[in-house]
Backbone:
C-alpha cells in the first residue's frame, strides 16, 4: 500500500474553448468587422443570439449563415467539431495537496505546494490566419469561442511510496489562438487520469475569433498510450539533467 497520496490541480484560471468549422462566407464577413470593432461590439452578441433560447435583437441580419445549410446552433459550445477544451491555462502552474483522509479527498491542505511542473510537449490545436486575400487552399474556415473562467478544473490523483517530487510532474499542452491549455499529465512517467467530479468555475468573460486553420499544420490529438513519446521523454530527461547540474 502506498505511503503517500496526493491531489494535483491546475491553476485557478482557464475555461472552455470550442473550435468548429463554419462557412467560408461567415468568416470573410466577420474578419474585417472584428478587426475594426473587436468581438464585443457585435460578433459575440451575434453568436450568442444564434442560440434558440437567446433574443434575436442582437443578430446581425447582414451576416451570412454560420453553416452552409443553417444559421441555427445549440450554443457556441456546440460548434466544436475540431476542438473542445475545458482546462486550466498552461502557464498557471499546479497545486499539490496531501490527502490525509480517504473520506474527503478534496479537503483543503494548508500546506499545499505550488509548482510549475515540466512541459513535455505541445501540439498545435487551433492557430488561425485572418488574411481574407491569402491562399486559402488546404485551409478550413473556423470559429473559436472561449468562456474564460476562474475556479477549479480537472484534478489528478497520485499514490507513491516516496514524498512528492516536483521534478516528476510532467504535462502536455494544446496551443490555440485564444490561449494554451493543460492537456495531459504524468507523474513519474505514469499517465494520470483527469477527474472532473469537483470541476467548479465562475465565468469571467467571453473571447472569440474567426479565421482559417491551415489543415496540414494542425496536430490532431493522439492518446498518449497510443503514440510513441520516447523522443519527448529523452529530451525531457536531458533538459532535467542539465537543470539539476546547473542549479536551475
Residues:
Amino acid at each position: 500500500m502506498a505511503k503517500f497520496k496526493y491531489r494535483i490541480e491546475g491553476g485557478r484560471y482557464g475555461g472552455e474553448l470550442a473550435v468548429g468549422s463554419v462557412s467560408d462566407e461567415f468568416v470573410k464577413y466577420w474578419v474585417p468587422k472584428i478587426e475594426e470593432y473587436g468581438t464585443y461590439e457585435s460578433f459575440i452578441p451575434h453568436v450568442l443570439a444564434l442560440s434558440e433560447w437567446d433574443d434575436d435583437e442582437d443578430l446581425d441580419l447582414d451576416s451570412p449563415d454560420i453553416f452552409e445549410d443553417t444559421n441555427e446552433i445549440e450554443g457556441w459550445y456546440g460548434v466544436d467539431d475540431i476542438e473542445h477544451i475545458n482546462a486550466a491555462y498552461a502557464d498557471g502552474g499546479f497545486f499539490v495537496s496531501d490527502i490525509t483522509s480517504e473520506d474527503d479527498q478534496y479537503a483543503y491542505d494548508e500546506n499545499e505546494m505550488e509548482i510549475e511542473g515540466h512541459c513535455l510537449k505541445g501540439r498545435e490545436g487551433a492557430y488561425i490566419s485572418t488574411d481574407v486575400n491569402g491562399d486559402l487552399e488546404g485551409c478550413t474556415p473556423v470559429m473559436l469561442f472561449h468562456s474564460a473562467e476562474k475556479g477549479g478544473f480537472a484534478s489528478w490523483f497520485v499514490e507513491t511510496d516516496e514524498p512528492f517530487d516536483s521534478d516528476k510532474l510532467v504535462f502536455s499542452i494544446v496551443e490555440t489562438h485564444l490561449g494554451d491549455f493543460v492537456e495531459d499529465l504524468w507523474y513519474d512517467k505514469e499517465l494520470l487520469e483527469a477527474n472532473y467530479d469537483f470541476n467548479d468555475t465562475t465565468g469571467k468573460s467571453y473571447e472569440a475569433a474567426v479565421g482559417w486553420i491551415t489543415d496540414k499544420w494542425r496536430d490532431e490529438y493522439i492518446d498518449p498510450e497510443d503514440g510513441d513519446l520516447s523522443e519527448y521523454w529523452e529530451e525531457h530527461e536531458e533538459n532535467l539533467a542539465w537543470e539539476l547540474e546547473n542549479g536551475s
